[in-house]
Structures are given as C-alpha cells and as structure tokens.
Amino acid sequence: MVSTRAVPNLAFRRLRGPRSAGEFAAAVRRSAREIGEQVACDARYIGRVESGEIRCPNYAYERVFLHMFPGTTLEDLGFSPRASVRGRAARSAVDAPPPTAPPPEPGGDDEESDVLRRVFMTSGTTAVAAVSLGLGLNGPAAALPLQRRVGDSEVSAVERAVRQIRVLDDRHGGDWLYRRASQPLRAAYALLDAGTVSRRSTADRLHSGAGELAISVGWLAHDSGRFEDARSHYAEALATARVAGDPALEAHAFCNVSFLARDTGRPREAVRAAEAGQRAAEPLGSPRLRALLALREAGGRAGLGDRTGCERALGRAHAAFSRGPSGADPEWMSFFREAELEMLEAQCWAALGDWARAARHAERAVRLQDSHFTRNLALYRAELTWDLARGGRPEEAAAAGHAVLDLLDEVQSSRIRAILHDTVGALGPRTGATSPVRDFLDRYASVPACPADPSPSGV
C-alpha cells in the first residue's frame, strides 16, 4: 500500500517568511489583482498548501504564484508537477468502484484546488460523473455511455445542465438550487480531467460548457449570499477560459466578477473587471455584450462616486444596446433586455444617491419585464421598493413591497430578501407609520425566514 500522507511544503513556508498566513494570503490577493486574476485566498488556504494537502495549485493560483516569485517554477515553490497529480487521479479512477453516496458539497474553499476536484474522480469512472449531470430535479438523470472517452453525448449533457440551471434560476432564484447544482459542476470538471476527448471541437465545447456551468453555479452562490463560493466559481471559470483560449467565456466570467465586486463593496475591482471583460469581448462582435459590460463598469464607477465616469459608461451602454440583438450575442444573455438595462441604470443612480431618478428607471424595469423571469421581476420590484423608501415616498414603497411579497412563494433569493430587510429599516418603526406602511411592515414580519423549496414543473 502506497502511503497517501501529505508531505509538508517547506519551500512554500520559507517563502512566507515572518508574515502570518493571513498577511501572506492578502499579498496573494493583491498580486492576483495586479494580473487580472480572481482568487479567494485566505489563511486556511495557505495552511493547506503548507501542510501539503494541496499538492498542485489550480491554474489561477499558478499564475499568481509565478507572478509573485518571478523566475520560479511550481517545483521551486514546493509543488508536485501538474502531470503527476493529474495522472494519479486519472489512473485511480479507472479501477475505483462506483460511489455509494454522492461526493460532499463543496465549501467556500474546495474549488481552490485542482486536487480536490479530482477527489470526485476517485469515486468512479466517467460514467459516474456523467450520470451526475442530470440534476435530479425532474425526471431521470442523463443516460450516458460507460466508456472513458468523452464525446458529443457527454458534452451535450453538460450543455443541457447549464440550460436547465438557468431556466430554474430565472423562475425560482438561487437559494434552493445552489447545492443541487454543485454536483453537476463537479461532474463536468471530472469529464475534463478523466476522459480522452474525441475531437478538438468537442474539447472546446467541453471547456466552454464546464466554464459556463461554473459561472452559473457561481451566480447561484452569489444570489444566495455565498459570496466567497461565488468568487471561487468565477475564478475557476476564468482559469478555464484562459487555458482554453476562449474569449467569450472570459468576457462572461469578468462580467460576473464585476457584478460580484460591486455587490460586495469593491467598486474599483468592479471597474477593472468590467474593463477586462470589454477587452475580451472586442473580437466577439456582440453589441449587447458590450452594453452589459459597460453597465457593469458604470455600476463600479457609481460605487466610487464617479458620476462623470458613470454617465460616460451609461452612454456607451445605451449606444451599444440601441444597435439591437445580433447572431453573435451569447446564449446566456437571454435575460438582458430593455428591462435589465433600466434596472442596472437604476442601481447606478441609487449608488449615486439620486433616488428619484433611480425610482423612475426601476419603475420602467418593472413595467417592461417579461413575467417568465420571475426572479428578476421580484428583484426589480424590490429595488423599486428600496428606491421609493429612500426617496421619501413610503406609501408607494409599501405598495411595491407588497408586490415583492406576492412572489416570495415562488422565488428564493437571499439578495432580494436583503433588499427588503434594508427597505423595512429605511421605512422606520411601525409606530407613527401610515396605515398602508403598517400593513406592509406587518405582512413582512409574518413572512417565514426559510420557506420550503418550490416544486418546479415542466422542466
């Protein structure tokens, strides 16, 4: 029996020097930002590297470490060669028995290591991974061949999983779906790691599908308030895009990184990521994609209090959007219609404190939104409620708030609930409120904190 005991990485520990693990993790994050990477490095991750638990970093971390220590190799930093780690995982997968239980759910830092991705593969063959792509939400999982060669059927299963997750998210939000979607994501990366892809075109589709799945799961984490999980998933998608040379996937990843940075109070990072996304999107020929990325930039500049820069970015967004849809628009942008344009602009004006203008755009967004996008409709109404409350129009805010509560049986989104919570605080105490406002506050107080999962149908 070959020992699998972790061997401490003394070379990496020496590089840390007198700094604490937390201080060194902060230096890693700063270096990542310098080269446009996104890594959710913390003291725990540094500890896992130094203990030898992480024998080889993922591609994003590799680029950051080599940037921090120019002229070195992974071996110089105490890591095992990537080929040896990949080979061992793949060989172990061939003879391993099928799992008796699904792999554990990924936590906030699981996605940081390629090694942990391969833990899934030690549970069985590619067939096990493929079966996991059915989501198990309605009907049977995808039935895929039992060989290790990855072909069109496996890649199609990954693409179907992406579409199904997006449809369910449009209707119900991220809270209930996130953990269900994590298993197909592990399965998609297991296919990347374990199989021999039959054609280059199939390999390209698989990389793109796995990256899009990482973004979709990252968005579910984002929407349900699991921000560090979201950062890790987005970073993995970005690394996949860089490895595959896929500018469309890279632009999408940067778009979501910018969105997350804005939502978590890092407006400067939001601007940088949006600008990087715009550079990646230049050769793609999609005006709508350029418009969305310009709106992401506008949101970051609004968070910085840069009204002039925000207005310029909004102008570029409107100009690009006015060119209309095109055949080059990515499939994932089906949500980006005029209603979303209005809502993102409303959020910019809210960040700048122009509540009246924010409310006007939010009202247009609610009026224009397709009822199919139930989660976004609830979000738009919640944003309108907040803008009206902050703008000194409490009774109108209460009316809009009732419309949000009407949808909470169908939609589970921590993001929407957080907006409602803040709105209730802005409306003030129940005592002294007018009757319409009191009615809304009473109804909000009676809403269960964690309602049961919805039961989607027809998917």
From TrEMBL:
<dbReference type="InterPro" id="IPR011990">
    <property type="entry name" value="TPR-like_helical_dom_sf"/>
</dbReference>
<feature type="region of interest" description="Disordered">
    <location>
        <begin position="88"/>
        <end position="112"/>
    </location>
</feature>
<feature type="compositionally biased region" description="Pro residues">
    <location>
        <begin position="96"/>
        <end position="106"/>
    </location>
</feature>
<protein>
    <submittedName>
        <fullName>Tetratricopeptide repeat protein</fullName>
    </submittedName>
</protein>
